[in-house]
Amino acid sequence: MSDARPLTEKQAERRQRVLRAALELAAEGGYDGVQMREVAERAEVALGTVYHYFTSKDHLLAESMTEWLSVLEDSIARRPAEGDTTLERVLDILRRTTRGMADNHQISAALIGGLVAEGPHGAASQQALHVAFSAMLRSAFTDEFPADQRDKIIRSLEHIWFSELIAWKNGWNPYEQSAQELEDAAELFLAQADA
């Protein structure tokens, strides 16, 4: 956003319309399908309004990724990870995050494209993604699990998850391979955790 002041209710509603419009266009045409002028038309706002909230297409898409992950985080808070072991609960969360992205390939590819862009807004969105992803995975661990070990495992899984998202988005790996590699890493890190 262009300033740090809290948004009024009307501003927040306009900003949400812009985000929704970007997601709709991404669903129709992927990354290239999101053009700022078309976002403005679809959201029924002036082009200047879009640029007031988002400095570029990449900024808009990165923020959309953050919003998507926030919705997923809320979903996991409402329906916590299932499983008797730490590994089972972590795998449940990882499967839910990757399944959601696989079900919406065009949108996911566009959002990942925005997220990996250079600049301060991409970095801020990456940090927000880190906070949300870490919180989701942390919920799979019991309080008895050593915190320093837990945090290292979460950070490593996050890096692998992000790497696999990029590999999948760029067509280097099919979705199934990326999902399996992420699960393999979780098993390596946590196979002995509840033994």
Write the layout of secondary structure elements.
Elements: H1 9-29, H2 36-43, H3 47-53, H4 57-78, H5 86-102, H6 105-115, H7 120-138, H8 147-169, H9 175-190
Report on this structure.
- The protein has helices at 9-29, 36-43, 47-53, 57-78, 86-102, 105-115, 120-138, 147-169, 175-190.
- By secondary structure, it is mainly alpha-helical.
- The radius of gyration is 18 Å and the shape is elongated.
- The termini are far apart.
Summarize the structure.
This protein is mostly helical and 195 residues long. The protein has helices at 9-29, 36-43, 47-53, 57-78, 86-102, 105-115, 120-138, 147-169, 175-190.
Fill in the keyword field for this structure.
single chain; 195 residues; mainly alpha
> What Rg is obtained from the alpha carbons, in whole angstroms?
18 Å
> What is the chain-wise order of helices and strands?
HHHHHHHHH
Helix content estimate: over 70%
- In this structure, how is the largest beta sheet organized? none
